[in-house]
Amino acid sequence: MTGVDIVCIGAAEWHGIWARAQQLMVRLANRGHRVLYVDPPITYLAPLKNRDLLNTRWQSAGRLEAVDPGRIWRLEPPVFLPFHGMRRMINRINQRRLAGTLRRTLQQLGWDQPVLWTYLPGSCDLLSAGIDWRYLVYDCVDDHAAFTGLIDPAVMVAMENDLARRCDAVFASAAALQEKMRLVRPDVTLVANAADVEHFSQAATARPDDKDPADLPAGFRHTIGFVGGIGDWIDTDKLAEAARAHGDWALALIGPVETDVSALQALPNVFFLGRKPYSVLPDYVRRFDVCLSPFRLNELTMSVNPVKVYEYLAAGKPVVSTALPEVLPFSPVVTVCQPTDSFTGCIEAALAEDSPEKRAERMDLARRHSWDARLTAMLEKIGE
Fold this sequence. Notes:
Number of domains: 2
CATH architecture of the largest domain: 3-Layer(aba) Sandwich
Keywords: Transferase
Number of helices: 13
Protein name: Glycosyltransferase
Shape: globular
Structural class: alpha/beta
Distance between the termini: 10 Å
Number of strands: 14
CATH superfamily of the largest domain: Glycogen Phosphorylase B
Helix content: 25-40%
Strand order of the largest sheet: 3-4-2-1-5-6-7-8
GO molecular function, one term: transferase activity
Organism: Heliomicrobium gestii
């Protein structure tokens, strides 16, 4: 797959929280591929929940942005009809509309026969929408049928299975996802998540000016940090437990809030710092004494392979995580909090056990889990 153009159907906005899709696409661009990244769609119902979308994504539907001129472009898809996760016919209509936008964009870019690399099960109906795809890749990173909202799990499973059967290569980011996909694709390849090691290892060294970000809380004995989306998959009760137990700790939470956090907002030592540019995240992580991965344990999270854990380790930081199956193998360097354990106690233990030797061990492990190595493994599979 040398020098071919790639259309990536992303599950997260390019300018949102950076995760697997963006990391892989940047590295594909570094290897000589031109990339068109399609942001996930909003529906006509979205402004009912967030009216700001009327002035942002609603008006920019179909817009093409050169985020890295000559290498990477971002496309705003058309606004979708709602309930496409519940009715296959609606998904077919939406995908035909997306195909029309893609055909115009590909013509504008002068691309012919691109690779389709998708993260969304609904792309199953894009495969037969009149675009000549060179190669089809499905990278499964979530149990889509386990999400809450306007989703019929049976419809989602049927679309995902249809997509997997028709793709040339199928990858999974977690063992549970691999086992699920094996039912329809016995050749599914497990490729776990990773870290941008070079980027996050900056957090292990002092800045020349050694200045903290202005909005980091000051005056506390320890800063306990989290980076990522704060949704219903995050165990906010455990965060509140730790904040109440230690008024001398500041809990600094970085990322968009997508769930009720009123109980946390009422606590004087919990700070919501909002979304931060990816480029400055090491400046914040540098000042965290312990980094958290506080996922709830449920059907959805059993298949989560948290990117943040790899990033924290690349920074050399002590990590406390709930007992996700994908985190358990890292227990020698990650403090894994079992359901019967005190989350506060686990943070206390991580603080007490930290040392220069432990930091070096974490960073050494992270270096063995880089995005470059992951992409090489995927391309080798595609090249078979």
